[in-house]
Input
Amino acid sequence: MTGADQASHADHAGATEAVNAQLAAPPLALQVSHLDVTYRVRGRDRLALHDVSFEIGRNESYGLVGESGSGKSTVALALTRYLARNGRVSAGSISISGRDPLAMDRSELRDLRARTVSMVYQEPGKALNPSLRVGRQMAEVFQVAGSDKAEAAMRSEAMLRKVQISDPGRVMDAYPHQLSGGMAQRVVIAMALAANPALLILDEPTTALDATVEAEVLDLVAGLRDELDTSVLFISHNLAVIAKMCDRVGVLYAGELIEEGPASQVFEQPRHPYTVGLLRCIPRHGQRKDHGRLDAIPGFLPQPGHKLAGCIFAPRCPIAVQQCRDAPPPAFDVGPDRTSRCYRHDETSGLPRSTPADVSLPTPPTAADPVVRMRNLSKTFTSKAGQVAALAGVDLDIGRGETLGLVGESGSGKTTLARLLLGLTAADEGSQLSLDGKPLGRDLAHRGTEELRALQIVFQNPDSALNRRHTVRRLISRPLAKLAGLSGVALRDRLASLVASVRMEERHLALRPSQLSGGLKQRVAIARAFGGGPRIVVCDEPTSALDVSVQAAILNLLADLQAKERVTYLFISHDLGVVRYLSDRIAVLYLGRIMETGPAERVFSGPHHPYTEALLSAVPSLDGQRRTRIKLAGEIPSAANPPSGCVFHTRCPRRLSSGICESTEPPLAEVEPGHLMSCHIPLDELRVMQSVDASDDNTAS
Amino acid sequence: MTEVAAAAPAEIIPAVSARGELPAWRLLIRRPSFLVGATMLLFWVVCALFGNAIAPHDPLAQQLLSINKPPSAAHWFGTDSLGRDVLSRVIVGAGPILTVAPLATLLGTVLGTALGLAMGYFGGLLDALVSRLVEAVLALPAVIVIFLFIVALGTSVSTLIIVIGFIFTPLIARTVRSAVQVERHLDYLSSARLLGERPIRIMFVEILPNVVPTVVVEFTVRLGYAIFAVATLAFLGFSVQVSAPNWGSDINSSYGLLGAGYWWETLFPALAIASLVVAINLVADSIQQVVSE
Amino acid sequence: MTRYLLRRVGLAIVTLWILSVIVFFAGQILPGDPARATLGPLAAPSAVRALDHQLGVDRPLVTQYLSWLGGLLHGDMGTSYAYQSAVSPFIRAALINSAKLAALALIVIIPLGILGGVIAALNYGRPIDRVISLFGSSAATVPEFVSGIVVIVVFGVALKVLPVTAAAGTGAPFLTQLKYLILPAVPLVLVLFGYIARMARAGTVEALESDYARTATLKGLKRSVVIRRHVLRNSLLPTITVIATQTGYLIGGLVIVETLFNYQGIGKLIFSAATAKDFPMLEAGVLTIGVVYMVATLVADMLTFSLNPRLRVGGWSD
Output
């Protein structure tokens, strides 16, 4: 498994020799050698993968990391020979457990897919046939491997039990739409592992899942891998998940594997400028919007199909020299089992930043009146399942000039809260919502221009949030005209200054959104939100749809704009790292109710609400501190049928034995200055409980 | 004091992804099916406009000595039961159909789009009511409804146009409504509402431009049906002027003679209709392909 | 399930009622006095008025409507002005004739259309797909009388293999009746082919590109199994709905085809009633086809409901 043979130029004879040597030993789960994959688009060939080589040993977990456009999914498709019609493997070889999928005929390929390699994708719900019962689909896997009906049914049930589905009979009888996301993904994993494959490929398997559910699924995969002696290829854009799950990792950039090695080493001491840049884009413990800032990677991905003479990363690299631009670097050996495609891999530790690490941002005044006050905010929807309380009696204040981070999983009500604040939906009777002390109109129809001006939003998905038929100029000018009442010269001036402050250029104004990259589109959305001179801007997952390297720039832009324009942010995100980076205060929602509110550091470091505790322990982080995983029992309950008393009691690991948690809903009380919690357990007891676990962590690690 | 990080030259300016979008019409011209269809269509349009100049004989001239003559050198398509040259009648007959059908379709498209926008945007009572009405009307085949109206109101050009246009309105409205509902889920509409935009502006300035491709496709598809309807009505005896050359009515007056073996006076007008319909279909299909790319 | 059923039936009844109102009052708008139409233009006004009174045409509209509706519910469709006898037997006979023709068309077209659409989808983008799709869309818009004439000329006049009228004569044996119905069925089949094939194709393409088809293929299943068990099961669902709603077009086509082939079906009946201004016959006929269409849609809804697990079975109950 050494990279020794790959040290100098691609020595094909040398590689073959290595393969022959391996033949004596049990075959590697996966061996990819100098793989090239080409797509034919509009009559031209485009190289999607170039000279990719890596290996996965038996019972080893390998992570493939990359942003969009890196080609990581193409690798998975090539391995199973499921490339699109216009794609083909144009060079190189693949060996899965000693077998070559590229040389197989149809029936051999089917056999390979049935027994040797399995795949799990994103969106588990869609991966199952909606018209067949789950049991039938499970049994198919065994039947293809040769079992008869009865045996297949038995083994299906056993497999479902293995993925911790407690009532397999019921699940087997059900149809896919009846399963929750986490349950469906377990079923898919069960199907994938049923035939005991040598290689399991996972392509972003948990991206569509909630944090707590994701943690369960990842634990499951790790456990099963050990038990079944399967090798895993884990593909993801999420470095923290890879760090948690994988022994070794390969970093893909624009179709090339630019760095490879043991996961902990690559993430602690990266030896390629791209990896360094990537890691600097991810907020870690201790980094804040004004201190230890995230650094963005300047430049942009090379155009697909565009051939570069030298290193593929050279145009964006801060330490690139002429040698880098002349010839592509080979994979250098930088340590045991480590390679890096960089001429200057020794100099990556002191890589210069492209933006300053520390800036001075004003701290929000603490004693001033809250700019937004919500009391008893509720919203109920009627659906087939009955009355659904998306929000139930929420009390929340947003301070002037602060960033309030709103955290919660699906069903928490955070989107509903934002919509109520903005007036896109009307709150229930009895809800009180006020801006600067004055009550806000129930919905948009009841609000005046001044109120509309004051509250604006940046949506998650700029493709959906910008009218694709309008030009950028029109998109940004409209709020200037409609809300700020500007026209003529005043409008043009303000437009120019807005464009400059989101770091766009004049030439972008004439374009339409479809001609812009994701990051640029989001800048347009931000400029539009700030156009009318708002006082409060709701940021609803503003970077979730963007690549990691673009995310950093947008987050810093938001922080800078806030300082310049003196606005208040309601920042909604499921990414706790990002929330911690930007927020001054945090509010945690669960099933439409506030569990905890308080200063960011307080809420994150504890003592905190048991739900917050579980959420924090579920999210994988690059920081390496392994907290004890607080496993939550069961699934998120349905909002149509919320549990009695404290809604979290059904899953709470710290539920009191006195029964008060089931019977009475705890009030949102101030447990220390500025820190509110909705829990029956007194703060001091929580402090003791949670520090005991923390010290266990310390002694264990 | 507030210090904001200056926009240093090393700041990220993500580039525009140049996708080299060709204008739609260029893409169309490359397609062979479009070219074939457009050529045929053009041919018939020329016939409609300049028919009388192109036709070899006078389409109205009756030559009672040479009735029901099969195709020959003098009369390529033969003569009908009144001795009129079938070829000339076919050429000039393009006129009535190509006048009424496009206008009727245009009327239906304009009204249908407006109605569809309203139904899709407002939803609620308006949508439910109109949908019920549409379903009730659609329970009857369009042809029957149309000819009932024609029987009631007479057969003038404007009546035909209005009736067909009105029948198309709910059909087109339904399609537009579905397209609008797809747009409703997108956030740019919420953004527009947050600016305080009025519903009329939202429908026509925000939603309509995004729905235009659907409308264009609907127009071309309905045009085919309009021709179908006008020809069928003429066949059933509801043409505008009975003696003037009209493919449908010509077929009406001559199909009874099929049993006697006089096939040319019925077949050629029928083929003319078929070719026109196929032409429009090719064009509509190409437009649909280009739009969906 | 029953709740859904009841709701659908209720909706259908409401729509039918609206239809009856439209039909009745539309009939009233049509010009022409029924007594005058029967007695002729030279009859004396007093005779016309007397006959009008006898026919009950001078009563207030609402009363006429209600008595008409009442009669309908008892199976009495009124008296034809033209034939001076009950309307119901005519409608019944015509309906049976049309049903035969429609049934033949449907039996041919359903498998043909589905097959065409599925083959097109499985060969997406390749020439056979384009050919099937273009043929389908063209066939759907060529008027029935045009295709009818072409087949008459080719098969009836030129080749003389099939008869050019549709009526085999009363009491003819089944196979002979069939022979006579073949040519009239062709235009209907052509028109329906377009719609059904298009729907089947779209549904199949969507299913082929779905995630679950990918899962099935990557499980190692044979392509034929993937198509049969996973793809088709999901793709044919929307097609079934379309088939039922095609009855509307089918009936419209019947009018033309029956006129062209001189076949005493319900389409021809309505047509001649309209031209003869025989309102009771016309209204009864139009309402009948409205009922047929509603029933077909209802059947389609039921079928969809029972075949789609997502509608049949609710979500995950905790």
About this structure: Chain C touches chain B through 47 residues (CB under 8 Å). The mean pLDDT of chain C is 80.
